[in-house]
Amino acid sequence: MKRAIPLRKRLLVRLLITSVLVAMCSVAATAWLAVETTTRAIQEEQGQVLAEDMDVLRQLSGYAATHRDWSGVEKTVRALSEKTGRRIALTTPERAPIADSATRSTALPPRAAAPVDPLRTDTFTEPGAQLSGIDPRAVGPYRLTPAERTRVRQLAEKRQSCFANNGVDTGITQLPSGRSTLTDAEGTVDAGQVPTPCANGRLNTPTTTESKALAELTTLVSDCLGREHVELTSPVAVGFDFSDRPMMRTRFLETPTDQRTGADQAEKAGECIDRARRQQLAPYVAPAAELFLGQGDRAVPRFDMSTANKAKVTGVAGLVLALTVAVTALVATRLVRPLRALTHAAQQPPEQHVRVPVTTQDETGILAVAFNELTERRERMEAQRKAMVADIAHELRTPLTNIRGWLEVTRDGVVDPDPELLASLHDEALVLQRVIDDLQDLAAADAGTLTLHREPVRADELLEQVLAAHRLAAEAAGVQLRSAVDGTNGTDGTPWVYADPVRMRQALGNLLSNAIRHTPADGTITLSARRHEDHVLFEIADTGSGIAPEDLPSVFDRFWRAEKSRSRRTGGSGLGLPIVRQLITAHGGTVAVTSQLGVGSVFTLRLPEHR
Question: Cα angle at 318 between 317 and 324, to 5 degrees?
């Protein structure tokens, strides 16, 4: 009677429940991720995070441009962190901490947001930065004294008044160095056509501080030009240029003598000026650092979906869920169908030997193949069992019938118990004893109780003993016996095995007896032993009738005979070769056979070599 499987324990139901849960979690996670991603995308699109990052970088770069080191930057970092609600950390290029708004134990983000170097500033993040990448707030030795600032301011006011008298409106802008300059509404320096009365050049004349700094810069530029092999028609001079932007810029005043390479040398000269500027300003600015930005404690604004968007998300989620359930049901049905076939086949009576069709190549298909192989093996073993019982009955019935018959006629006085009759009865008893002993050996081997008394055994001595025991039988059959062993010319070269010598003589004797029975007169049987890698190979080769290829897989089956018509007296009991296989397996070895009809057979025993 088939037992009904509860609904909750069915594989299809379990797969459906699991798939639904996974789908629901996936949909929920996808919706949450979409909301979070949309929130961050909108925030970044509005430029809030980017603007804050640029402002933090600008302020820290300004601090570095106006301080020789980072010793007092902790206060600035914390103020920026409180303002932006983000974590701000400064480290050296080697990741040594300089300042951090978070605790020391907090790990840094995996990558730095930007480098902080006033001598190599991004011109897009720092307004007014020179094309060479120098922060305009890094003035160093060009910073004016209070007296110089006052004097330059007065000159700027006079020039502004002159511009106004000539109809040009300007304003006064003070540069980071303290120098005052005129700008128009668009922020350019001395923009427009300068009125002739105002073009006296006094405002743009370097002060004493600036002249000293320019002289130092000129020396550095000259040294660089000399290293770059730039030839000049006159000594180098470096001055100010306020024609483009309200910032201080140095420029090269002379031109090279070689006009064919003038452009290249002018480019080298520009590189020398930038290099010299950085070299001159380096002692007055803080060393380069790495800026790390984190989320901090600031909460990200939630994204409030509209009713329409909520309906869309709900509809898409429902569609995905329905699609997932449908696909899961289809897949589960395809998975369960072969399992049902296996279950149905397994519930049939064993004697029917039901097979199942193999419809897939996945794990279920492999299981079906294994089930069919198991069924075939069980069917084969059942047939062998029945044949073995019949063979055992036959092997025991024949000698028992002969013994019983002769005993009955002797008891009735029909035949006298002469020596010839007793010898015949003794032979029948020996046949019975041999069959029983063979069956007992096989039973012990099957049960794992076969006892072996192992000892080191020389291969040549073992073969000689077996040959001596069967030499008379071979001579009676007209068969010649030969032996060949590796290393027999020297004691050290003879192969040894660690085995039970009695069981080994029994195994080799069974093979040799079998070879004598199947080898015609004037035939040859060769027993040999040789090394092969870490094993010793015993071979029994005959020139007998051979074995058909289709019979080779059954050679070691119990009660199997190559010729079905052979009797137990001429063909043996059919247990010799199975005993050989069991004995060699118990020794940790293997047995194999190769044969060709009309040529002969070779049985090979492979045993581990004893060293």
Answer: 90
